[in-house]
Structure prediction request, 231 residues.
Amino acid sequence: MLKIEKINQFYGQSHTLWDLDLEIKKGRCTCIMGRNGVGKTTLSKVIMGLLPIKDGKLLYKKKDISKLSDYKRANIAIGYVPQGREIFSQLTVKENLEIGVLSNRNKITKVPEKIYDLFPVLKQMEKRKGGDLSGGQQQQLAIARALCIDPEFLILDEPSEGIQPNIVSQIGEVIDYLTKEENITVMLVEQKLPFARKHGDDFYVIDRGSVVANGEINQLSDDIIKKHLSV
Ligand SMILES: Nc1ncnc2c1ncn2[C@@H]1O[C@H](COP(=O)(O)OP(=O)(O)OP(=O)(O)O)[C@@H](O)[C@H]1O
Prediction:
């Protein structure tokens, strides 16, 4: 689905991603793991076209998308839930979802009922302002908004961060449903091992901007964890 070949990214003089290679397979949940500051969010933003790369290739369904704008990437059905959610706090829940609908690749005009089936709390709170929702509800809204574009590929940047356990498990169930039932490909940036192990199929561990380990999630060994993930 997505193949990244030897990308290098810089913030000014600061070299952040180093010859990074990665492959994300269709219909699977691939966890991107690593300690704070190793480049996980930078990688997500590079895929979304929010940050430029110096060199390397981003092949999405075999087509090089590295020169496409972020707007065009939404049109090719890549959904993105950034760290920090970035919902519109002054707009209602429904209006936030309608912003996602505007980029729907099938040109639908209404929020699909399926979104509310996945996140019933959003139906109850449809008229409430985004900013008045709890952190967990905002995270659900951010995921729901990304699903309104009807993505084939969804990037979730630390969706479980700072969220209460019952909402984390609901989000996990949604990830399972998307990959197993809807064949949506998920890239999950995640630091929590139990969550990654439960919902991930594959993993990549990044350290100082490079991939240091990867494989199927059951190959994520204690040795890798000790070397590259524990603090
Ligand atoms: N806008 C920026 N300008 C300069 N340096 C930046 C910028 N954003 C991030 N960095 C640096 O790039 C490196 C990678 O940051 P990034 O946010 O991608 O890491 P991360 O793995 O997502 O971390 P975390 O788990 O804490 O979110 C860090 O050293 C960070 O300080």
